[in-house]
Amino acid sequence: MAEGKIQRRRPYPKRNPDFAELSKNYTFLAPYVTVVNGRGHIDFKNKDALRALSRAILLEDFGLDVIIPIDTLVPMIPQRLNYILWIEEIFNHYNEQLRGLDVGTGGTAIYALLCARKNNWKMVGTDIVAESINFAKTNIARNGMEDLVHAQLTQEDSSGNFFSEVDGHFHFSMCNPPFFSSEEETDSLGKSRKLDRPLPSAAKTGTLSELVAIGGEINFLHHMITESQKHASKVGIFTTMVGIKDDLKFLKTTLKANNALGHITTEFVQGKTMRWGLAWTFDQKYVSLLLPHSRPSKISPPIQVKINCTCPIKDFEFNIKRLLNDLEFQFINTTIGCIEVLAKSNTWSNQRRKRRAALRNPDSKEQSNLKSTKIEYSITGVDETVCMNNSTFEFTSGDIQNCDEKEVVLHFQMTFQTEVNVANTRIFSCKFINGSSGVDGVHQVVQYLRNKYVSHICNISNSPNTQSQ
């Protein structure tokens, strides 16, 4: 599915925070700030300086007073915030209060606290280290956020044990996994580092449990994906940070093997540091949130069409579906009263030109298509019921997960209903999801359906021969 970059909403896109000003406001940071020509500088190789800086940023920008335990992972706030901004973007138009799960929350419980403070989300942070959970509980209480954030100790297991011990339903999960498979790999100057890769600009921080896992990141996340499939109903959208780009290909293959219904990746860029995000779901109702353009900055209202028609609503729906099928739309999701369709080519424009071309040249491709899409109607009974062919007609199914974003010309949802207190009025509404033809494409298809339905089906159902049956 789609690749994306989260750069537009980065918290500090062009410059670092004002270290000199921060040091004036927070005395614990002052010893680590050197001011030259009015501009503050910090030695990022100093672990204590990093710890003080992160604490100051959390206080200044989010009003969070967090104690970062010595020798534990010091969270780089801009990078952590990028991850949260991505989750916000996924659930951009979700109207419920979200409940999230932070796997491996650590002593700072940084993701859980930021999600709760910034968005008022309810969060559960888990960790296999008892000391980390105790520190996390202290930080939660220190900020008076017990009503929104809960820290829970879970048991370590060779296969992961990421989701089995937590209760309730979560809209999403998040994780910053251990990247390394051994302590040697954590050494920036070690043999595992490529010769052409630049040295890190900041000191290494973190305990072994935070940095190292058996088999490294790729094995850790392989277990997570495998276990997530077993807990498909517990979490709507699973997400994780990925530190090694080459791991993404294997992880996508793992998702496919575990029958994930949809997934997306993104890229987090902050200074010289690059990370990737991976999100997936096994729940059909969350799939649309992972579509490339399902989260527009401005939601287009559904396009509603009313048609004067006396046939039953189920036949009205069937007739519209048949017209869409003739236009070579693929049916992604079909339930009673609601369908989701996808087109990989524009088959609805210039219909008059195509018909004229077909009449001029009987052997043309247009004539062949015209014959193949000829509509047949049958009138059933005195109630003027109209349907196309019969109810056993098979519609063309499609798979949005394996469809390249560039291939999508139009993807929209359609619902059907009868107007209240008006027996002979049927309504269909179309809501744009994504596609290169945009909302204009939906308007064009709607106009085609309206004209086709009114000129062919309604004329037949209202004809004197039909009424006399």
Structural summary, described in words:
By secondary structure, the chain is an alpha/beta fold. The protein is 33% helix and 22% strand. The chain has 14 helices and 17 strands. An eight-stranded mixed sheet has the order 1-9-10-8-7-4-5-6, with helices on both faces. It has a five-stranded antiparallel sheet with strand order 11-17-16-13-12, covered by helices on one side. Strand 12 (330-335) and strand 13 (338-343) form a beta hairpin. Helix 7 packs parallel to helix 8, helix 10 (313-326) packs across helix 13 and helix 11 (351-360) packs across helix 12 (365-372). It is elongated and about 85 Å long. 36% of the residues are buried. Residues 1-8, 188-201, 203-208, 293-298, 366-392 and 460-469 have low confidence and may be disordered.
Describe what is shown at a glance.
This protein is of the alpha/beta class.
